[in-house]
């Protein structure tokens, strides 16, 4: 017999624009005197109770309101459930209005700080994302990875780059200031299934090949196949030779398509400094649309640079002179995903002390990886924010930039690196029909090199290469699965971009949504 106030179990489906759940809920159900269920409806009030209720209603304040809360923990639970084999639905399965609202909510959540701070960079970024599907793809990694929450849990874990696409490979300085070609953006690094990088990279090459080169679907798939074949062939080579510890692409050993990039990126340091950065005295930054000097913070950044070098346990290179900070500036309007995040440049005097060989150290605000909480759980730790990004660079490059590290400014985490006259990425428009495939293959090989170092310099405690080769066997089937994923994801991104453009036009990203009780 059910008595008054008993806990009665019932099931309810909770569905919103983002996730669907079925929960078992216990409701305190009231019974009438004949012990019949009232369905949770209250008993009729007495006159005294009714008067008290009217009085409270008259005194009531406006309904409390709060900002839309982060859904990070909800998606962490979803990823865990999917990875464990539970039958749950990922956001990629949403369609129509439900998908539209999911896209809107995810982008608002991802850019909450920038929107609330009324950052000019935030509106610039949204305008840039509206400009093309490829730009939208580049700037919405969180949206992309929420569609993959908990997937590929059976695959070997490596330190993934997290944001693989054709423009995140390029030329940069190594520890000896020698130009090298490799992966060059570590903002999203995280320990995750190796396949996540291949899937995002494949989507990136597919969209870029369509948008920049105008290639049809058949040619797009051929280019992605070259990317995957480059990765697989070099992973086999590293499994046999273990040369990944010291290997790097330089101008003397790079394929032809990359040698051209080295030549394009070459510029004398003096030219670079005076053309783009220095004022007429050569003692500080020039004020421009891109740079706002903040010379009053020079002492602060002097201390930050000294701390950075000490933290890296390395002597400053001779080209850094006495490590004297000459000036500091705010850098505006750089990047795609990071557009709108604070960024500073510190001008360090070179050994000649005549403004011809100064170096520039960049401080860029670091955030949590877009993959955080979405990857299948593993025991490997990459660190937090700026420290995580520095860890990624130290693992994925054999002899990387000595100024790559992390710092804290006003209580906020920043990543650091050196700017250089030859830090550059590929101009996709300059690629011929033939060289698109060649470039994709080299990028696949560079990614294999980065992944193969996960057990040499990273946290992985097993031999990565043979595990990956076992996981992709048969390789033709694996490549076909990745290709099909990429094509489906690219089609979804085109729809998502249309939803975003419609919302952006109507002002959806000027404010954060409020939740009212």
Describe this structure as you would to a colleague.
This protein is α+β, with helices and mostly antiparallel strands. Helix content is 42%, strand content 15%. The protein has helices at 47-59, 72-83, 96-110, 112-116, 120-131, 133-139, 141-146, 194-211, 217-241, 256-265, 269-276, 298-311, 385-396, 433-452, 464-471, 475-505, and strands at 7-15, 20-28, 65-67, 157-160, 169-173, 179-183, 190-193, 291-293, 325-331, 343-348, 359-365, 405-409, 412-419, 424-425, 514-516. Strand 12 (405-409) and strand 13 form a beta hairpin. Helix 3 crosses helix 16 and helix 5 crosses helix 6. The two termini are 36 Å apart.
Q: How far apart lie the N and C ends?
A: 36 Å
Report the portion of residues in β strands: 15-25%
- List segments where confidence is low: pLDDT < 50 over at least 5 consecutive residues: 1-41
What is the SS-derived class?
alpha+beta
Global Rg: 27 Å
Question: Can you summarize this structure?
Answer:
Helix content is 42%, strand content 15%. It has 16 helices and 15 strands.
Secondary-structure map with pairings?
Layout: E1 7-15, E2 20-28, H1 47-59, E3 65-67, H2 72-83, H3 96-110, H4 112-116, H5 120-131, H6 133-139, H7 141-146, E4 157-160, E5 169-173, E6 179-183, E7 190-193, H8 194-211, H9 217-241, H10 256-265, H11 269-276, E8 291-293, H12 298-311, E9 325-331, E10 343-348, E11 359-365, H13 385-396, E12 405-409, E13 412-419, E14 424-425, H14 433-452, H15 464-471, H16 475-505, E15 514-516
Antiparallel strand pairs: 1-2, 3-15, 4-7, 5-6, 5-14, 8-9, 9-10, 10-11, 11-13, 12-13
